[in-house]
């Protein structure tokens, strides 16, 4: 990557150089400051500053031989976060497609990103052709079925931290805008193991969601079925709950959860 970006502010250039350091360490293993400086084409003091910043975040570490650096265990946290999301879509794809065909509605898998929900995979049933593509779209935690699942199964401390940054925006007259009411609903969701959300994010849209767990039993995603209210009214939504819960449990089993 040479000297990296020519951005006059130096910020992008520093990022380019830091990425270059990580790529070199990945390729060569343990590398010294002088060798890194030669590879990147910068002064050793610049490399030392980059290594210090990367070391603070555990992305690199010093090897036993003084002056040599290698990749750090902090990279595992990043890779696990990505691989977990990729795994849940891979393991859930067939199950979601089968459920979409069975129910005729749209099936999504969503995960937490900061204080939003992001849909990472979607399957469309035969009656949902032309429906909205939610993949990659950020949606609010408090006004979606998936968001309420992810909130309900967090630890109390984690939920408090997340909700501290959440503004309970009103999207319809059914949107929960009271933190006390939201907490009450989340208790019910945690007890029931599923949630039905009717017209909380959009008028005319109903969704049913259930939790997906990893091998340790931690809820890492939500599986939801959504459709128009005229098809997925309250009665129909309650009817599909067992199928949604079973599908989420099937994905959880594929993720290593044995219940």
Automatic annotation (TrEMBL):
Domain of life per record: Bacteria
GO molecular-function terms, A-Z: DNA binding; DNA-binding transcription factor activity
Ranges of residues in domain HTH iclR-type: 12-73
GO BP annotations, alphabetical order: glycerol metabolic process; negative regulation of DNA-templated transcription
Keywords: DNA-binding, Glycerol metabolism, Transcription, Transcription regulation
Domain IclR-ED span(s) in chain numbering: 74-257
Known function: May be an activator protein for the gylABX operon.
Protein name: Glycerol operon regulatory protein
């Amino acid at each position: 990557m040479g000297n990296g970006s020519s951005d006059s502010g130096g910020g992008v250039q520093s990022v380019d150089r830091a990425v270059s350091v990580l790529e070199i360490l990945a390729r060569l293993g343990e590398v010294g400051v002088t060798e890194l400086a030669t590879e990147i084409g910068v002064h050793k003091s610049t490399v030392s500053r980059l290594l210090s910043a990367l070391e603070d975040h555990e992305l690199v570490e010093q090897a036993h031989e003084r002056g040599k650096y290698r990749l750090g265990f902090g990279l595992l946290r990043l890779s696990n976060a990505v691989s977990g999301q990729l795994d849940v879509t891979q393991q859930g794809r067939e199950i979601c497609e089968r459920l979409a065909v069975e129910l005729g509605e749209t099936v999504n898998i969503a995960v937490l990103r900061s204080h939003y929900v992001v849909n990472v995979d979607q399957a469309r049933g035969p009656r949902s052709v032309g429906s909205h593509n939610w993949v990659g779209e950020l949606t609010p935690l408090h006004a979606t079925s998936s968001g309420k699942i992810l909130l309900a199964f967090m630890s109390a401390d984690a939920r408090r931290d997340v909700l501290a940054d959440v503004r309970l925006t009103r999207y319809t007259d059914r949107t929960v805008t009271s933190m006390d009411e939201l907490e009450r609903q989340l208790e019910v969701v945690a007890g029931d193991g599923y949630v039905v959300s009717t017209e909380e994010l959009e008028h005319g849209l109903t969704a049913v969601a259930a939790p997906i767990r990893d091998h340790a039993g931690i809820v890492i995603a939500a599986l939801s079925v959504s459709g128009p209210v005229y098809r997925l009214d309250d009665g129909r939504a309650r009817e599909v709950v067992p199928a949604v819960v079973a599908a989420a449990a099937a994905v959880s089993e594929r993720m290593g959860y044995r219940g």
